[in-house]
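User: Is it possible to get a 3D structure for a protein together with its bound compound? The compound here is FE2/S2 (inorganic) cluster. I've pasted both below.
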Amino acid sequence: MSLSKAVFALLLIAGPVSAQQPQPAPAPPVPAALRNYKPVTADRLKNPEPGDWLMIRRTYNGWGYSPLDQIRSNNVNRLQPVWVLSTGQTSGHEAPPIVNNGVMFVATPGNQVIAIDARSGSVLWRYRKELPEDAVVLHRTSRGVAVYGDKVFFAAGDAILVAIDARTGKEVWTAKVEENKNGYYLTMAPLVADGKVMVGISGGELGTRGFVAAYNVDTGREVWKAFTVPAPGEPGSETWPAGGDEWKTGGAATWVTGNYDPETNLVYWGTGNGGPWMGDQRPGDNLYTASTVAIDAATGQIKGHHQYHPNDSWDWDEVSPPILVDYRRNGRMIKGLINVARNGYLWFLERSNGKINFIEGKPYVKQNVFKSLDPLTGRPDVDPNRKPGTGKLADHCPSLWGGKNWPPVAFSPETRLLYIPANENTCGTSTGREVEYMPGRSFTGATTGFYLAAGADHIGEIQAWNVDTGQRVWTHSFAKSPNWGPMLATSGGLVFSGGTNDRMFRALDASSGKVLWEFPTNSGVIGQPTSFMIDGKQYIAVQSGWGVDSRGMQARLNLISPGEYPEVPEGGAVWVFAVK
Amino acid sequence: MDRFGRRTLLKAGLGVGVGLGLKPELALCQDNPASSRPGEGDLLVKAGDAMKNPLGPGDIREGARPILAWAMDPADGTVRSGSRLNQVLLVRLDQEELSPETRLRAVEGIVAYTAICTHTGCEVDDWLPPEQLLHCPCHGSRFDPRDSGKVVDGEAPRALPALPLKLDNGRLVVGGSFTARVGFQTA
Ligand code: FES
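Assistant: Yes, that's possible. Here is the predicted structure of the complex:
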């Protein structure tokens, strides 16, 4: 409600103190950039114009790839800021600048969405949704908005999905996704597919039961809800203790946006850790924790799944969705899914109209928990000494943050390389204890430690893997920093990413991994970079704003090596670069 | 809605007892005694205790993990469990080790703190017995309950607000409000 309405309400209460009827304030004029706002159609989402970036990874296959090629290895050293805009927020700025025909939408911490004229950097509108003071939002971040029709969809931290009018920044409708008091909150970008808007939830540490829910784009009415932990009697329920209540608080949160295959109308969504953290408190494989599920976008039915490790006990959320890419293996082309898992393995899978098949899995960072994989199913043979339990300490590599956490990979169809922001040499310890469920309270039941593997000479990496050979082609490592940087690949033969504690945003040669350009921003860059075009000119956009888990890892590293990992300056900004 | 608008509205609504389209949960936070912060004279009961037995010093053992408790209105037995920000940790420490300031708030070495981490609001529900420190499992902040809940290390930007305790008729009683705002940054 606006100030003028509030004043109006006050006057009503006070009674007719004045004969003058307060006039509603005239609506502010719609800025030129929004007057001709170009509605986003289903076709545009499926086949976006090269100069637009309409969804978080630009395309449904999750590639994070731009076909723009003006910025190349021979001119990238002339890349310069065109404009920069402060968001007014601290904490982790992880959302990509979404660009539709020159209008940019950016989500930030603090339940805020800003619409910006992408050409000039002027603010067109700001939407803010105040959080109740006792809101349960354990990660103060947003990973982006979705656009469709003339609406912008935003998943507010307090578990409310909001449809905003793209032209005015005003709320069109809100839908309560779940009860925030019970530990459900939102950090991901909604996904629009099959004419619906979908969200997944955060709260895997709070005794929640994961789900993906779809809403009518016009009304916000729930269309379906697909639980990622089955109820008794449903398929998969046999992997939970029979007759128990464990499934009700079983976790499998869905806090990163899925990818989508329009051909089969299946959404591929990742799921998180089980709850509580120790698997011996919920014996069984615990489907669909630590899995990718294939959800029918029409009905919400789960039509297939692949579980990366059964009975998770390491807090290895496998929430990053696999990217959809067809690759060559043993002389045939495979309609593929590729996932870089938090458990330290790189997975090559096969997609179909339901079932997900295992093709190949191999470690991409130090991993000492899996002794081997079943060659047919990919099921890991877990070393029992590396599996923590209730009252049982175990140490394991990678650490609970994993070989790769949420930051998305990129894939270039030109180099056929997959670009992975990895953290090598991280290990951890974990000991479990009994934990009592209380709504909205922490439900992990674990004490964890963090250390670096003996002889570690670096942590952060960008790795490039050829999807057709399954071999690593190059690695760029960061001696003194972890890497929390989402990747962007472009047709200009470049990859862009930040992710390090030195505040740099950089461009690397996509084929060789050589750093060609870097620029120190205001803070650490953990935002998803995007590329767009206006009037025939290519731009690169990204948010800088260190926080959340990147900050957490930095703090833990500074405990190990005091003074070597100082605090990274915080505070968010949107940056746009171009070749001058 | 901007902040000013909401506050104005809220006052207006309370003043005449009309909701005026105000979100019900917002109104509740203000009116509901179960959601208001612990205040002077409140008793303390163990979380999950259906009998609502007021806690006495004998219920908090030295060397044990902190107990999670709620404040209770002594007049009508309202347990203030309506807001997660009201979760209180009770732990008994060696009296000799308490800082002078902390000692003033303690009863027989028993001290009380909010359970809500000042970083991003996780429950500080882990206890490190050898160091006698409160540990937040989310991002590893550690707080010293012997010294005003000060941050020992980690990401928490400020100390855990403390809740002063008194002894009254053999029962633990809240001696005043939290020493600082409970919670974390939400906007
Ligand atoms: S919420 Fe406690 S350390 Fe982050």
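The first strand of chain B starts at residue 43 and ends at 46. Chain B touches chain A at residues 1-6, 8-9, 12, 15-16, 18, 20-21, 25-26, 29, 47-48, 83-85, 87, 120-123, 125-126, 128, 135, 137-140, 153-155, 183, 185-187 (CB under 8 Å).
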